[in-house]
Amino acid sequence: VDRVRGSLEALGDSYEARRENIGTLIDQISELTAFSKTKLLDTFNALINATGSLETASKALPAAAVLARATGIELNAAADLVVAALTGDKGALEALRKFGVEVTDPSNPFQILTDINKRFQEQAGKSVTSLDRFKTKFAEFQVTVGTAVLPALEKLIAGLTPVIKLFAEWTEAHPTFTTVIVASGLAMLALGTALGTVRIALLALQPV
Fold first, then answer.
1. What is the distance, to the nearest Å, from the Cα of residue 160 to the centroid of all Cα atoms in its chain?
2. CA-CA 20 to 30 A from 151: which of 26, 32, 63, 157?
3. Rounded to an integer, what distance in angstroms lies between the CA atom of residue 119 and that of residue 126?
4. pTM of this prediction?
């Protein structure tokens, strides 16, 4: 989001003013293609920078997403292909034709996008599997949890670092006592394991 905000500010626009529309766009494309919202936002930002236009990027992103999902190519590669086609690149237009896109007017960028969507939108939706959607939801969950937990984890680590350092210094200064502590700990662990084994054996002997 920060990168999209910066790209829009460079164009003299405001992310805050466009937040709702951008969120809706990303949600709709993610629902159709099962690409994660994070990946779509990154590609959207790349399209804004490549085209220099929020409007063009907003129309190019759905075309790139359905192209990528339907053909199996990487999303970023699909976005690059779409951008090249919009500039009239003959190689890109030929590549689209090989993918089955009927480019009706190569001189009209928005018609090219319409032709891509017409060719791949339905196919992209059908090619999404339940596993694709699960992977996307799980990846987004990881990002959300990571964002929420990371600050607390960093504080915890920062607080424990002095304690760990002091303990390391103490063990270096008292190697003999440290050996005794470790040996005692291993003995307790062995005792606990033995007691657990005996308990299981006794339970096995009890009548049902």
1. 30
2. 26
3. 13
4. 0.63
